[in-house]
Amino acid sequence: GAGVSQSPRYKVAKRGQDVALRCDPISGHVSLFWYQQALGQGPEFLTYFQNEAQLDKSGLPSDRFFAERPEGSVSTLKIQRTQQEDSAVYLCASNSNRESTDTQYFGPGTRLTVL
Amino acid sequence: AQTVTQSQPEMSVQEAETVTLSCTYDTSESNYYLFWYKQPPSRQMILVIRQEAYKQQNATENRFSVNFQKAAKSFSLKISDSQLGDTAMYFCAFMNRDDKIIFGKGTRLHILP
After folding, report:
1. Residues of B in contact with A43 (CB under 8 A)
2. Average pLDDT score over residue span B84-111
3. Mean pLDDT, to the nearest integer, of A61-71?
4. pLDDT at B97
5. Is the pLDDT of residue A100 over 60?
6. Rounded mean pLDDT of chain B?
7. Any CB–CB contact under 8 A between A52 and chain B?
8. Closest residue, chain B, to A34 (C-alpha)
9. Cβ(A92)–Cβ(A23) under 8 Å?
């Protein structure tokens, strides 16, 4: 595709529900990143994949957060038993360079609101 | 740990004026990358400009240029001939070889007609 796409764009969940957020990276991009952006803040790193391998998950805030990229393309960020503090915009980014110093291209984000 | 600080939460300038957004960062690394990203109200994060730390020459992209002072750990963005479409949130960001981008808290820039 022309750019990184994410779905849904908006998600409202009741506290305690599980949610799944999808990211479609730019075709052929090797690396994929997830970030969390709280209201009025800059994005914060969550996790990083190179192809299907999750190389860094140090930014995941708790074991309720889980990400996967089973075929090295589409990625899903899953949040179990959502809490109000999980409300944020979740951004996905991808880049093509195996050396990972290439520019990261961002998707439009998914705005998650937990009631 | 690396940190990125943007000391101007909000700025307003008249259209066609020049504006400079400030950014400082802290790192013990010698090789890293710095970025300015723009996030319009539609929320899509767009790369404005990037600078490799090993390059002494300041990066430029059309109306956008940076003043990179490595010793002072300063990385400011200058927007010349500002346009209404430049209205957005601007994030200064840092990346070293571990690929994580660390963002500042952002500067909200308003271009006034």
Report:
1. 45, 91, 101, 103
2. 92
3. 96
4. 75
5. no
6. 93
7. no
8. B100
9. yes
Assess contact for B67 and B23: CB atoms under 8 A: no
Q: How many CB atoms lie within 10 A of CB B16?
A: 10
How would you write A5-57 as a 3-class SS string? EEECCEEEECCCCCEEEEEECCCCCCEEEEEEECCCCCCEEEEEEECCEEEEC
State the number of CA atoms in the 13 A half-sphere of A58 facing the CB. Answer: 6
Shortest CA distance to A107 belongs to which of A11, A13, A22? A22
Task: Please say whether the beta carbons of A32 and A69 come within 8 A.
Answer: yes
Mutation to test the B interface, candidates A30, A39, A45, most B Cβ within 10 Å:
A45
Q: Contact, B71 vs B63, CB < 8 A?
A: no
Tokens of B27: 């790192």
Residues A106-115 have pLDDT tens digits of: 999 999 999 9
Q: Which pLDDT belongs to residue B56?
A: 85
